[in-house]
Amino acid sequence: MIVRDEAANVRQLLGDVAPVVEEIHVVDTGSTDDTVALVRQMADLHPGKIRLHYLEWQDDFAAARAYSFSFATRDWIFWLDGDDRVDTESLAFFKDHVLDSDADVDSWSLRYVYSIDVDGTPLEVFERERFVRRSTRPRWRPRIHEKIDTDMARCRFYPDLEVIHGQGLKPDAGERNYRILQEELSRHPDDPEVLYFWARELWHRGDVKSVRLFERFIALPGVRPPLEILARFCLGEHYHAGGRHDAALDMAHAIYKLDHTRRRSESYYLWGITEQALSRYRVAIAWLERCLDDNHDWPRRCAIEHYSHRDLRTWLPWRRIAECHARRGQTEEARRALDAAQRHVIDDDESRAWRAQVEEMLTAKAPPGGTSRATNAALLR
């Protein structure tokens, strides 16, 4: 693992994994808090198992991870971040009964709970490669938002062990990521992964140049379907906001074809909000209700990269459904949808203002309020 200023987390993580694994290599990239002292304390508790290394930070996550991998001596390498969490018993079961169960597997991917709601419900869940055979000589790239280049035909997904990510970015992370991505794009202008993440960085900053970059990204050959889906969703929202309804519907159709599971919500949501904008409310409701399908157990259905952000399966479609029912004069249905939406959001000034707006629609036929592009862009963070 690579760490920097993880004094609040590293002791617990090392305590989670030390009883299960044979060796732990911790690479510190410049901590200024008590991280190093805590790692040394844990090393004393587990003699010969935890080893501390140092690397001067060079704005290169891939290089730091490769450096940490260089110390591994066992057949399998399991990587984590200093603010991750993993259940000890589940890890032990996987190691003892699953890890070596298939000789044709060179890597295992796990559930990665990247963010959680205040009540502990997963918001963003991805699939990340976590175990890799050392004999495959794994290589990390690019410098940021890095992943292991691996033969996906020899990778298997295991759903019953998850890694939970710590909450929040470090204070300097935003500008650091911006700087690294800008440099990477200048070196590798046609690298799909770099182009996507640079476009996403600009999208979060409200920079309209992100639209042309997303358009360029989806035109490249060999892009990963999960990233293409998210890029097309951003484009669909941009086209929808600009009144380019046909273009938004094209993005929805393309996402639907990319998602062979038919369980992602992005396509249904784009279809729904576009039909709503065209005043075809009954059709809009039908599409938006598709976003809510099987919502009760969405995190464990299939390969994790096929899951939408939870907001796209809860309050966002419910709010749009409420607006559509209000426009159709269906007061009871609109208020039921309002209540359903409110169950998934914090009762703050914004949510109360939106509810009041829909109530006004029910009584005065006021123009409907839409969910802003900024709100929906937050789903990609």
Q: How does this structure look, described?
A:
- A hairpin with a 5-residue loop joins strand 8 and strand 9 (about 145-150).
- The protein is an alpha/beta fold.
- It folds into 2 domains: about 1-165, Spore Coat Polysaccharide Biosynthesis Protein SpsA, Chain A (Alpha-Beta Complex); about 225-380, Alpha Horseshoe (Serine Threonine Protein Phosphatase 5, Tetratricopeptide repeat).
- About 45% of the residues lie in helices and about 15% in strands.
- Helix 8 (about 225-240) packs antiparallel against helix 9.
- The two termini are about 25 Å apart.
- Mean pLDDT is about 85; it is low at about 300-305 and about 370-380.
- It is globular and about 70 Å long.
- The protein has helices spanning about 10-15, 35-45, 60-70, 90-95, 175-185, 190-205, 210-220, 225-240, 245-260, 265-275, 280-290, 315-325, 330-340, 350-365, 375; strands at about 1-5, 25-30, 50-55, 75-80, 85, 105-115, 120-135, 140, 145-150, 155-165.
- The protein contains 15 helices and 10 strands.
- The strands form 3 sheets. A 5-stranded mixed sheet has the order 4-7-6-10-5.
